[in-house]
């Protein structure tokens, strides 16, 4: 944490415990808390505040991140950071994309979601590209209604069967370009060195902090 004298103006507005992470996904909340670690901000999650999970009616990652952040800022009276993210598989026309969470069904079973990706890819034939990328849109909403957003990306290929149990969601099938282990096999610090979420986060830090 920076000393009082060199703490940038914006971070002083984000007093410890005063930034809502507008997400109900424990894996994301953990990663965002880790990424916020160096900035002296102690986040509180939407779940801890009993905030409702809004319907994601947007047609883009940014629109969904904005609606989640704005609702949390509005209901809590605190600055709120939301993340809308997903896996885009090029041979599937970038599906599941914004529907990545919905492919896991009401039980939020990502084994089912990963199997669906693999099945749909198999349906494209053996020559189909296995290229994929993750996108992360971060939206930071202030209680006065002002919103800023940032979008990050990481490119890779899909493996089958799934490998590793360290991450969440689609991590076990995502092999980032230039790496020999999946996100599911990676220590969190290594994932933060290259992930879509860390990419968006770097842009946010450069702009805000
Ligand atoms: O909306 P919130 O409450 O934040 O939680 P969610 O899980 O519904 O989140 P999204 O609507 O943004 O859906 C994105 C899905 O994409 C997947 N995803 C996003 N980032 C990922 C990552 O870093 N690793 C693996 N899967 C990821 C993950 O399974 C998410 O459920
Ligand atoms: Mg969601």
TrEMBL record:
Binds 1 Mg(2+) ion per subunit. Transmembrane segments: none annotated. Substrate binds at residues 23-28, 85, 168-171, 191, 196-197. GO terms for biological process: nucleotide metabolic process; purine nucleoside triphosphate catabolic process. SUPFAM superfamilies: ITPase-like (SSF52972). Keywords: Hydrolase, Magnesium, Metal-binding, Nucleotide metabolism, Nucleotide-binding. CDD domains: HAM1. Its EC number is 3.6.1.66. The keyword Metal-binding applies. GO terms for cellular component: cytosol. It catalyses: dITP + H2O = dIMP + diphosphate + H(+); ITP + H2O = IMP + diphosphate + H(+); XTP + H2O = XMP + diphosphate + H(+). One of its GO terms (molecular function) is XTP diphosphatase activity. The active site is at 84 (proton acceptor). Mg(2+) binds at residues 55, 84. Pyrophosphatase that catalyzes the hydrolysis of nucleoside triphosphates to their monophosphate derivatives, with a high preference for the non-canonical purine nucleotides XTP (xanthosine triphosphate), dITP (deoxyinosine triphosphate) and ITP. Seems to function as a house-cleaning enzyme that removes non-canonical purine nucleotides from the nucleotide pool, thus preventing their incorporation into DNA/RNA and avoiding chromosomal lesions. Homodimer. This is dITP/XTP pyrophosphatase.
